[in-house]
Amino acid sequence: MSIKYRPLKAFLLAVQTGSFTHAADRLGVTQPSFTALIRDLEDILGVRLFDRNTRGIALTAAGKDFLARIERPVADLEEAYRSILDLAAVRRGSVVVGSLPSTSLTLVPPALRMLRAAHPTLRVRVVEAHNDDLVTMVRTNQIEFAIAAMLAPAADLAFQPLLEDAFAAVFPAGHELAARPRLHWRDVAPHDLILLSRGSSVRELYDEAMGDRPSTATAASRYDVTHMTTAIRLVRQGLGITVLPSLALPELDLKGLLACRLADASARRTIGVLHRKDRSLSAAASAFAAQLAAVAASVIRDAGGKARSKPAVPR
After folding, report:
1. Contact 50, 18 (CB under 8 A)
2. Which of 25, 48, 94, 248 is 20 to 30 Å apart from 226, CA to CA?
3. Could you give the CA distance from residue 99 to residue 96 in angstroms, rounded to a whole number?
4. pLDDT digits (tens, 9 = 90+) for 152-203
5. In sequence order, what are the residues at sequence separation of 6 or more whose Cβ sits closer than 8 angstroms to the Cβ of residue 80?
């Protein structure tokens, strides 16, 4: 037995309107076509569902029994259909994404504002973590996608670039590094370093850059911190220098400090949307990713279209 939705809907509309003519108008078909739908349904079921007379239509006993059995299931089916349409149109839904601390300061807030304006009923949860942790959370389905850097190729992950970011050394105005027009990893290595903890992209890139150098070059004491604001406070206390993402610097209080982008090619990262290749992004996640791309494009335009190394300047 194969019963399609359309004859069932025709049956319910006939019951609701009490007329094949009115029900046909509601369904958007001619009356003969509507009558054919009811006749086909009756043929499949092997029973008569309606008695017709000059005054209208009336349910038979079999019709009443059939109505009691299908009214709720069809309503549930239609609700499920509307629900999926709402998800597809981003009229409802939720998404959990991960974000680097630097992008949480810069890209995420305006993207969320734009997303709320376009899709006010959408719920978004942002989990902030270092790069390594974000990659793990994507792989284990704890988040749908991450705003992160893909520092090494991964066959199981897809990556859509948003923008390029460079790392910058931050130090007190009177520091000896202020006299250098360009800085490299090798220039900051001998100094007391305040670095973001392992798992962060800056720490991974620093360790890779200095991994083949003599241990005496990296023997200076270091402070490992979790938050960029903590690193800035320690620099302000004269405890050392730090290396932070340039993207985040405008959102940090650098008054009295200097910042200089590192000239090394390895002191750059590409930030993008990272997700599993075997999982399609939901409509809600795709909408959020689109707003992030718009914000990133605006950041690139404001920066002149590309990242440039700059001499140390007071902030």
Report:
1. no
2. 94
3. 10
4. 889 999 999 999 999 999 999 989 999 998 999 999 999 999 999 888 888 8
5. none
